[in-house]
Write a structure and sequence with these properties.
single chain, six-stranded mixed β-sheet, 10 strands, globular
């Protein structure tokens, strides 16, 4: 599924650190994420992957350093402008759906943006994730895989420039994993959406990403194009992780 990366940096992190109660959970000297690529973040639980996504979605600022998006700095005491924040959307591992219809869930984000004549957009997003015939079904009746696809449709309808995915296929059966991976790939290929994928599944990273980064104890150990990452990692810790050994 891989395709060549693009070389224009959409995100740039410089000496970024994040602390909670004086405990440093993320410490990245430098990282670039390129426009139009699928960039996968792998690493053990507690490595800082989800924290990095929170910073990338501007949900909270770094404690130190600067995160740049479209060359606009997001740092302590500096806000990311609304028009740039709206270019980024996150889909979480466990989607929180409203106790309404599938259609109402997908429409919700547009309503928050005061877009009320949106039925065509909503239906198109549902068709894109294979749920076009389930628009009027109650969200609480959905399977786990269907609920995750509704969450994806809710993100897609906003037409984000960047989609952040936090373990989007965790605990799903192989059929739904394949469906969601195909949606991710098509979104990148057809709409040139930049995707940052956090996953424990190294095989998923290998299937989808053009580049992969390895986080361990909050530090970015290595980034490389996908083939090199898996066949000739430059760090022994990366090599151990790729081999499936426990790395802590």
């Amino acid at each position: 599924m891989n395709r060549p990366q693009r070389n224009e940096a959409l995100y740039r992190l410089e000496r970024v650190a994040k602390e909670y109660n004086s405990r440093r959970v993320l410490d990245i000297e430098h990282l670039e994420i390129f426009r139009g690529e699928i960039f996968a973040l792998v690493g053990p639980s507690g490595a800082g992957k989800s924290t990095l996504l929170r910073l990338a979605n501007f949900l909270e600022p770094p404690t130190y350093g600067g995160l740049y998006f479209h060359n606009q700095e997001f740092a302590p005491g500096k806000e990311m402008p609304l028009h740039l924040r709206r270019r980024v959307t996150t889909v979480f591992q466990r989607p929180m759906l409203l106790s309404r219809s599938v259609r109402a869930n997908v429409r919700f984000g547009l309503e928050l943006r005061n877009e009320h004549n949106s039925e065509e957009k909503v239906q198109a997003a549902l068709e894109e994730v294979g749920l076009g015939g389930m628009a009027d079904q109650k969200a609480r009746t959905l399977s786990g895989g269907e609920a995750q696809r509704v969450a994806l449709a809710r993100a897609l309808v906003l037409q984000p420039e960047v989609l952040l995915l936090d373990e989007p296929t965790a605990n799903l059966d192989p059929y739904n994993v394949a469906l969601i991976e195909e949606i991710i790939f098509k979104l990148n290929q057809q709409h040139h959406t930049t995707l940052v994928l956090v996953t424990h599944n190294v095989f998923q990273a290998k299937r989808l990403a053009q580049r992969v980064g390895f986080l361990l104890e909050g530090r970015l150990i290595e980034t490389a194009n996908t083939e090199d990452f898996f066949t000739q990692p430059s760090d022994v810790r990366t090599a151990a992780f790729v081999r499936g050994e426990m790395v802590y």
